[in-house]
Amino acid sequence: MKREKHFDIIKRPLLTEKSSALTSGNADEGYAFEVKLDATKGEIKDAVESIFGVKVVSVNTVVVSGKVKRVGRILGRRSTWKKAYIKLKEGDKISLVEGV
Predict the structure, then answer these.
(1) Distance between CA 80 and CA 34 in Å, rounded?
(2) How far is CA 32 from CA 14, 28, 71, 72, in A?
(3) By percentage, how much of the chain surpasses pLDDT 90?
(4) Is the pLDDT at 35 greater than 80, yes or no?
(5) Which terminus of the chain is more solvent-facing, meaning fewer CB atoms within 10 Å of its CB: N or C?
(6) Which of 66, 14, 60, 19 lies closest to 41 in space, CA to CA?
(7) How many angstroms separate the CA atoms of 39 and 16, rounded?
(8) Per-residue pLDDT tens digits for 50-85
(9) Sign of CA dihedral 76, 14, 11, 36
């Protein structure tokens, strides 16, 4: 698979309280990413290994439904998106924030 395609699969890292808890403490190294809605676990694994040069042990995915939002009288809906939790081989690490 081409490297450009890997960057299409991984949209952005999720830097939240829950994802920060995965990377710190006694838990195994884990990271969260927003990925393409139609990406498979195998494609996500290949993309992370190619982009960051690490060994992925497991990939868990969650499809997050879009919320209904209101602006005045008008109802709208946010887009549905997919989240991937990545577990790395012991000793591997990804630096998501520059300088860390």
Answers:
(1) 11
(2) 5, 13, 30, 34
(3) 65
(4) yes
(5) C
(6) 60
(7) 22
(8) 999 999 999 999 999 999 999 999 999 999 999 999
(9) negative
Token readout for 29 is 């190294």
pLDDT for 100: 53
Q: Burial, 88: exposed, middle or buried (Cβ in 10 Å; 0-12, 13-18, 19+)?
A: buried
Tokens representing 97?
């924030």
* 3 state DSSP class of 44: helix
Per-residue pLDDT tens over the stretch 15-34? 888 888 877 755 566 899 99
Question: Structure tokens of 24?
Answer: 């710190």
Structure-model confidence comparison of residues 98 and 65, the more confident one: 65
Burial per residue of 27-43, b for 16 or more beta-carbon CB atoms within 10 angstroms, e otherwise: eebbbbbebbeebeeeb
Q: How far apart are CA 45 and CA 20, in angstroms?
A: 20
Encoding tokens for residue 84? 């991937």
